[in-house]
Amino acid sequence: MTTEEATDTRGRILRAAAGLLEREGRDAVSTRAVSAAAGVQAPTLYRLFGDMNGLLDAVAAYGFEEYLRDKRAMGETDDPVADLRRGWDLHVEFGLSRPAFYVLMYGNGRAGGSAAGRDAAAILHRLLGRVAAAGRLTMSVEPAARLMHATGVGVVLSLIATPEAERDHSLSELARDSVLRTVVTDAVPADAGVSPLVGRAVALREALHTDAAGADSLTGAERALLEQWLDRLAGRS
Question: CA–CA separation, 206 vs 200, rounded Å?
Fold first, then answer.
């Protein structure tokens, strides 16, 4: 099989598996059903994807690619917090419009999650990194990402599990605004309860990762010590 033939066959298998997933659910995505729908033999499926987990990862990525296209089309503005808010809304929209793919990405309980889920996490880190660089994050990027991820995924899975006629879509907005109030700050007045030092520490911590030229002026030991100090300051609220 040539590289071009393998690519065509892989695409045909993914389309077949994605169709089964959307029409009939996860249990319908079996080796036999996918092979029959794609017109291939089971050994071809295993040669291209390794095992069923490999196929499911690829199917999740196939569905998630549409979400990624939407995110890329969304672009970025001069307001990183507004972009973060829109990213949350698009995440929820994807989950409710493509629930079978979303559950495959986030609801399978596999250690480390799916590859598509990790791609989504990288996007969230980048969005939060922009907020941090603007000095508007109240904590370091990693805990902020964990909080937003856990809350967002929990909300979407809860809504998916609720009959559509009974869903309260304001739940997503309430959760989003609550998380943003926790991880994001505006220009902070003196009595707001959040030290401006926190945002500055987070911004500098993020800059160490994005400005390689500047960071190279420090030795490894100096950089590690600076990161430790900044992490300690960023953890203060």
Answer: 10
User: Quick one: which of 231, 232, 136, 141 has its CA closest to 192?
Assistant: 136
Instruction: Tell me how far apart the alpha carbons of residues 7 and 4 are, in angstroms, rounded to a whole number.
Output: 5
Give all domains of the chain, ordered by start, each with its CATH number. Answer: 1-50 (1.10.10.60), 59-234 (1.10.357)
Residue 44 CA from chain centroid, whole number: 31
Long-range CB contact pairs, 145-154, < 8 A, 24+: 145/121, 147/179, 147/182, 147/183, 148/88, 148/124, 148/179, 148/183, 149/121, 149/124, 151/175, 151/178, 151/179, 152/88, 152/91, 152/92, 152/176, 152/179, 153/106
**What pTM, to 2 d.p., does this model score?**
0.74
3-state class (DSSP) for residue 219: coil
- Helix, strand, coil: what percent of the chain each, to 5? 75, 0, 25
CA atoms within 13 A on the CB side of 150: 7
pLDDT computed for residue 218 by the predictor: 76
Sequence-distant (≥ 6) Cβ neighbours of residue 168 within 8 angstroms: 162
Backbone angles phi, psi at 184, to 5 degrees: -120, 140
Question: Which comes out higher in pLDDT, residue 231 or 36?
Answer: 36
Tokens of 83: 């972009």
At residue 112's C-alpha, the angle toward residues 56 and 170, to 5°, is 85
Query: Among 125, 139, 134, which residue's Cα sits nearest to residue 195?
Result: 139
